[in-house]
Amino acid sequence: MNLTQEQENIVNFAQIGNSFKVFAYAGSGKTSTMIQACKQATKRESKFNRYTQGLFLAFNNTIAKDAAKKLKKNSINTTAKTWHSLAISNIRPLYGHKMELKKADQILRQYLYKSFFISDQRIAVKENIIKRRDTSKAPTIQFRNVSSRVCKGYIIKAINCYFSSADHELTLDHFIPICPNWADMDFFLNNFVANNILSISQQLVENIFNTEMNQFPVSFSSALKIYQLSKPKLHIDYDFVIVDEAQDTDLVALDILNNQDLSKLQLIVVGDSFQQIYSWRGALDALNNVKVADTFYLSKSFRFGKDVAKLSTAILKYSFSDFQLPITGNLEKNSKIYEIQDCTYSRYDAIITRTNAGAFDAFIKAIEQNPQLSISVEIDIQQIQSYILDFEKLEKGIKLSSDSALTLFENIEQLEEYVEENPTDSDISSPFRLIVKMGINELKEKIQVIAKVATNSKEQTQFDLKITTAHKSKGLEFNHIVLFEDFNSFLFQKMDSTENCSPLIYAPVSEEEVRLFYVAVTRAKESVTLENFSLIFVESLVRQVLNATNFSVKNTHQELSMTNDIKLCHSILLKYLSEENSTHLKNLLEENNIFEILDEYFNLFTQTKDSF
């Protein structure tokens, strides 16, 4: 394997034994670089009386299995595991009899529903979430009824939130993420949770941790929590640990990493901070939170060419002040960006949508264009069906269940008003737009078509077209992709919202949307087509961002290369210098005095060349 200069720097540093982190952009050969790093790291002599042992950690089982195959193929003495399999193997001696991993949440829910009484509750609605039609009257507190079943659902969610945290005990804080978006937070926590479900939640957690209470099983998430609370010392079994996809690391895993003794363990974390798209479910980017100082980059993408690289750079630089190193493309690939009003989908390999409802809409358009087209589509049909049923109840004035997405609204007018003011609340707004566009009856017919196609294609492995959301596209790649038009409301805003004809500007509504856009664009190897986007912005965005930016690819790479050379020399010297000279060397490094560091290095190399 021919390594780039960036890859060589990483592999050399891995062999020395120092801990470091790697920012690896989309398609930059992250996994293959880490395999080479494992190969070099295992050549070191272990500090302990054993062959050098390595651990490759991933949250995703597919990534762990793929890494295991490559490590075995190259005869590298490194074990590949998921975080959960690492935890399970370590707690099995005590908790093996309680491990109902896949059924644990279901069993716990059944026990909770049968054994604990919780009455229906009233929860205060957030003030002014729905515009008041009579502004002359003083606002009054509004309440929504929440069923006993939903209250118990909050308990399960909060327990899982605690399991993915670094905290030792379950508290009110673990109910903050599961507070409904319509509820008054203070009332929810200090009245409803504190008085009704906090003590029950704490009791259930204690029972799960109790090895003698077999009716409370251990799940994947509780296994990792138990492992974290045991304060594991990874250096007992491993000399180095590589953490892949570090941007998706949750707080419980991050706590395990930050409690390691790095004088006894080499820790390498690798990922892409700009592909962190799961913060809504508790992920915290380990690249920016792990206690490791040295940083390297993999900035060259092998997946796509310069045009996609330039657009990706502009997307990130536009919104992130900490974006430093430009993404460079593969010069052997001629990737292109296109903007087309209406695509012929049979010409493409994949359609990437922003929302689940968008994937539904894209499927209908594709099948109407070509009924013979073989399509793989990932759509939560049940979610849309539930929305339609609740919409019909709202039209007829029938009371909705308290776990309905539409429970906040008393009539269709309130729903319309909310959608107009909150177009990016995709769970509510996207299905609503489908209903408005097609009508209830036609939408129901289309759902039956999708359900039939999904059933017929279960055994199929090859398709003409794949339709997926941006979230689900992560980790995939295709030759030619279409980005669907439902990205529009998340990426563009009107300059003057009072005028329907006013121009639109590129203004992503949040950093999360920027990252999703980046993930979607970088799935392409040969071309990205933006369908029905709000304005011709690619060329102007790239020119605006890159021309206004002081960095140049060449100079930035030179600067980073020099920094990495200093780190490499410094690390080698530390192995051979006395403590007094090490302090002197540390001062030189802080002053960024490369010439004196290199002089020290070459002097030492001349004196002790046989030791290197």
Structural class of the helix and strand makeup? alpha/beta
What's the arrangement of strands in the largest beta sheet? 3-2-6-7-1-8
Q: How big a fraction of the residues is strand?
A: 5-15%
Overall mean confidence score, pLDDT: 83
Shape, please? Answer: globular
Number of helices: 22
Helix share, percent: 40-55%
- What is the CA–CA distance across the termini? 24 Å
Number of strands: 16
Q: Write down the Rg.
A: 27 Å
In oligomeric terms, what are we looking at? single chain
Question: What's the structural blueprint in terms of helices and strands?
Answer:
Blueprint: H1 5-16, E1 20-24, H2 30-41, E2 54-58, H3 61-73, E3 78-82, H4 83-95, H5 104-115, E4 121-124, E5 143-146, H6 148-163, H7 185-209, H8 220-229, E6 240-243, H9 251-258, E7 266-271, E8 295-298, H10 306-319, E9 336-340, E10 350-353, H11 356-369, E11 375-377, H12 381-396, H13 412-421, H14 426-438, H15 440-456, E12 465-469, H16 470-473, E13 478-483, H17 488-491, E14 492-494, E15 504-506, H18 511-521, E16 524-531, H19 538-547, H20 553-574, H21 579-590, H22 594-607
Parallel strand pairs: 1-7, 1-8, 2-3, 2-6, 6-7, 9-16, 10-12, 10-13, 11-12, 13-16
Antiparallel strand pairs: 4-5, 14-15
List keywords for this structure.
single chain, 612 residues, alpha/beta, 6-stranded parallel beta sheet, 22 helices, 46% helix, globular, disordered C terminus
